[in-house]
Amino acid sequence: MSTVAAPNQSTELLQHLIRLQCVNTGHPDSGDETRAAELLRTVVDVPGAEVQSFGPLANRQSLVARLPGTDPTAPTLLLLGHTDVVPVTPDDWRHDPFGGELIDGWVWGRGAIDMLCVTASMAVAFADLARRRVALPGTVVFAAVADEEAGGTAGAGWLLDHHRPDVSADYVLTECGGTPMHTPSGMKLPVLVAEKGAAWTKLVVHGRAAHGSTPLMGDNALVKASEIVRRIAQYRPLADIHDTWRGYVQAMEFDPELTRTLLDPVALGDWAAQHPDRGFAADCHACTHITLSPNVLRADGKTNTIPASVEIEVDIRTLPGQTNDDVTRLLHELIGPDLVDSVDIEFLHEEWHATASPIDSPLWRSIEKASASVYPDARCVPAITPGGTDARFYRQQGATSYGYGLFSSELPYDDYVAMFHAANERCDVHSLALMERLWGDIAVDLLA
């Protein structure tokens, strides 16, 4: 008979963070993450800790807590969480997405996985280090930042631009990774050492307005836009078997047939489209392909007016080595010569390349050691994530940055992957307890 793990301090904190509803719509005034910063301050503001709040707006503050080391020349470890979450469609959920309910050992709600479970457990672990007065040569910093879900320009990126001395670090741990994966060669724990780039793009499609009763008088921009969306959705590139992906597949030690498939540029795409385990298959596909997802269509006007202009927003994720110039060329090709002169292409943020950190590092070895105390027969493997995290800001500054956590075997990998930005997010209490311990163990081993 299975037993439900007892709630821990991170459980209650996660519930409260979910209930704050720090929803980031992408609008500069959304998020209201200051409320989360104030809540987390009550946890980490303990004797020995230096706690500050920073942010570009009063309602978009990030919290930074610091445990200074005894040796100014020793390295700094940053535990980097974010406090914002993405919007929800409540009708898709089995439970209240902002209720933070604890049901049979699982906390339900938006952000439970992405990434409030990690943020909560990092705060608890940081406070525990301070209370135990662990004297480490190196410095430990906990940052709970705003705006990760919209690119970090009001969060981690802003902090590094305006308060670099307070948030700089040699080593960084942030979200994703650490979900047990069972393979024929044993359990594997992915450590995200790399992530794809992003090129969020707005396509402005131009036509000519007219009265809806006389369509031949106009040039309907919405009709053009729908055709462009169709062409983008039909794009099927071959897989790119880049070095990071090859290293991941080899380290995972899948069975020979799956290994051959995952390293075959042609076979991988067909396999991913048909594989029943949608989470794993979708992740494999995204990690090896440039992806273009047309997610927003916006037109002014009314039922009886032919629109002269329509906007399409496309979430584009790029592979290592790809640039905005490559994206522009691809869009021209997909839009086609018959429509490209009617379209303006606008990037929605500064160039955001794929980034990676080396695995031959003291942080990697500390992760291995801390993880082995829970899963002694598991092997940590380097992986790439198709999504974006704040780790990229630190990799660009030269810091070794990994995405990790340590989840229980009660959370299947497919379920974990499928919950990001989707309905029915939930995290089990056991995983929260594992992460509470993980962060402190890594800090002590790395910085002592």
Q: List the total number of helices.
A: 15
For this structure, the CATH topology of the largest domain is Aminopeptidase
Percent helix, as a range, is: 25-40%
Fourth-level CATH superfamily of the largest domain:
Zn peptidases
CATH 2nd-level architecture of the largest domain: 3-Layer(aba) Sandwich
Most strands sheet: 6 strands, mixed
Shape: globular
Strand order of the largest sheet: 1-2-6-3-7-19
Low-pLDDT segments, ≥5 res: none
The overall pLDDT average reads 95
From the helix content, strand content and strand pairing, which structural class follows?
A: alpha+beta
Summarize the structure in words.
With 448 residues, the protein is α+β, with helices and mostly antiparallel strands. The chain has 2 domains: 9-182 and 355-447, Zn peptidases (Aminopeptidase, 3-Layer(aba) Sandwich), CATH 3.40.630.10; 197-347, Alpha-Beta Plaits (2-Layer Sandwich), CATH 3.30.70. It has helices at residues 9-19, 34-44, 116-131, 156-162, 164-167, 221-233, 243-252, 256-262, 267-274, 278-288, 324-335, 362-372, 391-396, 413-418, 429-447; strands at 50-54, 62-67, 76-82, 102-103, 106-108, 139-145, 171-174, 181-183, 186-195, 197-198, 201-206, 210-211, 291-299, 305-306, 309-318, 343-347, 355-356, 379-385, 400-403, 426-428. Strand 8 (181-183) and strand 9 form a beta hairpin. Helix 1 (9-19) packs across helix 3, helix 3 crosses helix 15 and helix 9 (267-274) packs antiparallel against helix 10. It is globular and about 75 Å long.
